[in-house]
Predict the 3D structure of the following.
Amino acid sequence: MDFEKKLAELEAVVKKLEDKSVSLEDGIALFSSGLNLTKECLASLSESKARITLIREELDKLTESEFKEE
């Protein structure tokens, strides 16, 4: 599942948790599901950050070599 779908699912879980008619058992299950989705979203963001960092480093190397040649 991609990040956007996980985030939408997490938002749905939060909305359900805000419903005061949710039973304790259902609330615990929803909370656990929300926690897992949060972990997955954070992992996805961390991966994306690492990829962006690598891309920026590549770009920096390219621009450095361009300026050194002048």
The radius of gyration is 20 Å. The first helix runs from residue 3 to 18. Helices lie at 3-18, 24-69.
